[in-house]
Each structure stands twice: as C-alpha cells, then as structure tokens.
Design goal:
Shape: flat
Low-confidence stretches: none
Mean pLDDT: 84
Number of strands: 0
Helix content: over 70%
Order of helices and strands: HHHHHHHH
Length: 155
C-alpha cells in the first residue's frame, strides 16, 4: 500500500514539473520581444535635469539647499520639481540633501581627526547635536562611535 502511495506521489510530482515547464514556456512565448518602453525625449531631458541637480548637491552638500531655489535654477515650479525629483531619485529633494551631508560626514569622520562639532559645521548642519541626532537615526550609531569604529579600520 505504501509503495503504491509513493509511486502515486512521484507521478504527481512529475506531472506538476511538466505542468510548470509548460507554464514557463507559455510565459516566455508571451513576453518574448517585449522591451521596457524607452523614455520619451522629454522624460529623458527631465531625468537629466534632476541628475544634474543631484550632482550639484553632491558637489556642495554643506550649502543650505532650499527646494524652491533648486526648482528655480531649473525653471520649474516647486511642486513639479519635487514630484519629478522624487520620481527620478525615489526621495524628496531635502532628504537627498540630508543624505549627501551625512555621506560627507561619514567621509570626514573616517578620514580626518576633526571633532563632531567641526564636521557638523563643514557639512552644513545647524549644530553638532542635530548632526548627532540625524546620524544616530539614519546610520544607527552616534558619529563619535562611527569615527572610532571606522578610523581604526582605515588605519
């Protein structure tokens, strides 16, 4: 009885494998030749505009970036700029600027012996406390501990 049951299970498994193969083949046939739609010229131009703004922020993270000013530099309304920025980068402009500042802080913490106060000033944070609070929230540890951990690793 058990032998027959095992044989029935094996046949069932084989049938399911064959059925899965048929489904995969059918899926491959239906999706063959389909390509993601190319960006329109306008979309490509808008994406490049946002990439250029990101590069500008990355080059000078300490600058006090204001969304309305960024929008003005690319001749867009604040709302349109924010929506487009979020569509292209997946994040809001102010959040992107904060991430750029935090990245710069990480670089300085790892590669210099500057104090947290000096780094907060160089990276455009309002205070060492604000840097420490954001750093702990987003990186997961205070800047001083990050510096201890990664300065030692770099040496």
């Amino acid at each position: 009885l058990r032998t027959e049951e095992r044989k029935a299970q094996e046949h069932w498994r084989e049938a399911m494998r064959a059925y899965r193969g048929v489904l995969m083949l059918q899926l491959a046939r239906e999706t063959a030749g389909r390509v993601a739609p190319a960006l329109s010229e306008r979309d490509a131009r808008n994406e490049q505009i946002i990439r250029d703004v990101c590069a500008m922020i990355d080059r000078n993270p300490a600058h006090p970036w204001v969304v309305s000013e960024l929008a003005e530099t690319v001749s867009m309304s604040r709302g349109r700029f924010t929506a487009l920025f979020k569509q292209v980068t997946g994040t809001a402009p102010q959040d992107y600027a904060i991430k750029a500042r935090l990245h710069e802080a990480c670089v300085l913490l790892t590669n210099t012996s500057l104090s947290v106060t000096q780094i907060s000033e160089r990276c455009g944070f309002r205070s060492a406390y604000y840097l420490s609070r954001l750093f702990s929230q987003r990186i997961g540890c205070p800047p001083s501990r990050y510096a201890e951990r990664f300065r030692l690793a770099a040496e």
